[in-house]
Automatic annotation (TrEMBL):
Lineage per the UniProt record: Bacteria, Pseudomonadati, Bacteroidota, Flavobacteriia, Flavobacteriales
Gene Ontology CC terms, in alphabetical order: cytoplasm
Domain of life: Bacteria
Protein name: Alanine--tRNA ligase
Record text about domains: Consists of three domains; the N-terminal catalytic domain, the editing domain and the C-terminal C-Ala domain. The editing domain removes incorrectly charged amino acids, while the C-Ala domain, along with tRNA(Ala), serves as a bridge to cooperatively bring together the editing and aminoacylation centers thus stimulating deacylation of misacylated tRNAs.
Protein localization: Cytoplasm
EC annotation from Swiss-Prot or TrEMBL: 6.1.1.7
Organism: Vicingus serpentipes
Gene designation: alaS
Length: 488
């Protein structure tokens, strides 16, 4: 099944069950001070769960563009190293707002996965919340019994239901507000021989790279009060999220999300542009493969963000996007030997492949390509020198720590986001002195504040012999950039 059909099948399934199918909310959030990017399908329905806005549809389904690169959910470092965490991914979801509850959510999940998508039921595992003494919550017997009934009907062993703790199986919106237990569905993708070797198979769900969580069903039944106490909610809700790329991996019989048709066109194009073959190994010491996966992932995050109106910049959400893009550029530079821009050429592949589901990609294709190209151009200008400086530094370092001042120099002079410096340090078994970096950063802020004061009073003319330092581009209008220079 092609990925477009997988998405459509999900939406059609829930439409048939009287769900209103809605569009994805933007991935970049403009009006919520607590969240920069959508990181789960439920974000756009927050006000409905909180009772702050009127419920128009009691049942909703959609595919939501998500980005997990900051805050509570930060999967950036997993990307490319494992094969199923992305920065940007789609979360397929169905919701009930005070309408159906656990029974329907669980039975429909089974029906969709087993009867419709035809996933081998032997490979499915289910977690239920085990309860928490401190909260006074009991094990989720309802969810357990619902799965049990399904397993018994299908002659499957009960060890497929695993009890899980609060950390993984109790969802909370924040310190207060709606919350409740969840039930996750995992798929075991190991080959039969390997599975046969596991005693009892109960431990099958342990952290194994090929036992992958695909769907999370959240049952909001409590309201956490300011004193920590849980009160039963008058209207109970269902919030589910299934990783679209992971589902595609399962349905297309692959071992990695990158082997699905969601990523392969981009990967093929990267190989074609760079002349580096994707060897399709999960061995992380094969740096070219990691680099190709990282770039295939990051270009999606950046492309979708720009399509949503968030351009790379030096602050806030824009800087997050710039960081991701610079990370991709540097992977291309260091491991695929790319000294010239090429990532921008991947945008057309994405637009072609995803444009039907996300028309904003087609509409913005030209702008996105241009913006990425300019970012590549500008960063590649300083990257080589920065890497050179970095290598010299490592060669002469007394210990295994990159000191904060030097990390700041890379940041300030060569445009290296601090997480890039950390990544490069880690690759060389070095640490970064983060407190030292912060001190240097604060000092710079102080300096610019002081400089700002003078500039407000006096007209400062930059003389030709003044040392200027490039600190990046700032987006000003639809398609112009203002190059900013700062005196040092
Ligand atoms: P994991 O434990 O694998 O990190 P999670 O428990 O953090 O996943 P949820 O918050 O429950 O994920 O999100 C719902 C679903 O979204 C998951 O079951 C998974 O299929 C998918 N998902 C979560 N994070 C990612 C990601 N970084 N990339 C791709 N899919 C993801
Ligand atoms: Mg996670
Ligand atoms: Mg999880
Ligand atoms: Mg989960």
């Amino acid at each position: 099944m092609k990925s477009a059909q997988i998405r459509q099948t999900f939406l059609d399934f829930f439409k048939e069950k009287q769900h209103e199918v809605v569009s994805s909310a933007p991935m970049v959030i403009k009006n919520d001070p607590t969240l920069m990017f959508t990181n789960a399908g439920m974000n756009q329905f927050k006000d409905l769960f909180l009772g702050n806005s009127e419920i128009k549809y009691a049942r909703i389904a959609d595919s939501q563009k998500c980005l997990r690169v900051s805050g509570k959910h930060n999967d950036l470092e997993e990307v490319g190293v494992d094969t199923y965490h992305h920065t940007m991914f789609e979360m397929l979801g169905n919701w009930s707002f005070g309408n159906y509850f656990k029974k329907e959510a669980i039975e429909w999940a089974w029906e969709l996965l087993v009867d419709v998508y035809k996933i081998d039921k032997d490979r499915l595992y289910f977690t239920v919340f085990e309860g928490d003494e401190q909260d006074g919550t009991e094990m989720d017997e309802d969810a357990y019994n619902l799965w049990k009934a399904i397993l018994e009907k299908n002659n499957l062993p009960l060890y497929k239901i695993l009890k899980a703790n609060k950390k993984d199986n109790f969802w909370e919106m924040g310190d207060t507000g709606p919350c409740g237990p969840c039930s996750e569905i995992h798929v075991d993708l190991r080959n039969d021989d390997e599975i046969a070797k596991i005693p009892g198979r109960e431990l099958v769900n342990a952290d194994h790279p090929q036992v992958v969580e695909i769907w999370n069903l959240v049952f909001m039944e409590f309201n956490r009060m300011a004193n920590g106490e849980l009160k039963s909610l008058p209207a109970k809700h269902v919030d589910t999220g299934m990783g679209f790329e992971r589902l595609a991996m399962v349905l297309q019989g692959k071992q990695s999300n990158y082997d699905t048709d969601v990523f392969m066109p981009t990967i093929d194009k990267i190989s074609q542009l760079t002349g580096v073959k994707y060897q399709n190994t999960l061995d992380v010491s094969v740096k070219t493969d990691v680099a190709i996966r990282v770039i295939a992932d990051h270009v999606r995050a950046v492309t979708f963000s720009i399509a949503d109106g968030q351009l790379p910049s030096n602050t806030g959400a824009g800087y997050v996007i710039r960081r991701i893009l610079r990370r991709a550029i540097r992977y291309g530079y260091s491991f695929l030997d790319q000294k010239e821009p090429f990532i921008n050429e991947l945008v057309s592949v994405l637009a072609k492949q995803m444009g039907e589901a996300f028309p904003e990609l087609l509409a913005q294709q030209e702008l996105i390509t241009k913006v990425i190209r300019e970012e590549e151009d500008s960063f590649l200008r300083t990257l080589e020198k920065g890497i050179h400086r970095f290598e010299n530094y490592l060669a002469t370092a007394n210990d295994k720590t990159v000191d904060g001042e030097f990390a700041f120099e890379l940041y300030d002079t060569f445009g290296f986001p601090i997480d890039l410096t950390e990544l490069m340090a880690t690759e060389n078994n070095f640490d970064v002195d983060m407190p030292g970096f912060i001190v240097a950063l604060d000092k710079q802020k102080e300096r610019s504040r002081a400089a700002g004061k003078i500039e407000a009073d006096d007209w400062v003319v930059l003389r030709e012999d003044d040392v200027e330092e490039f600190i990046g581009y700032d987006y000003t209008e639809a398609d112009t950039y203002l190059t900013k220079y700062r005196r040092i």
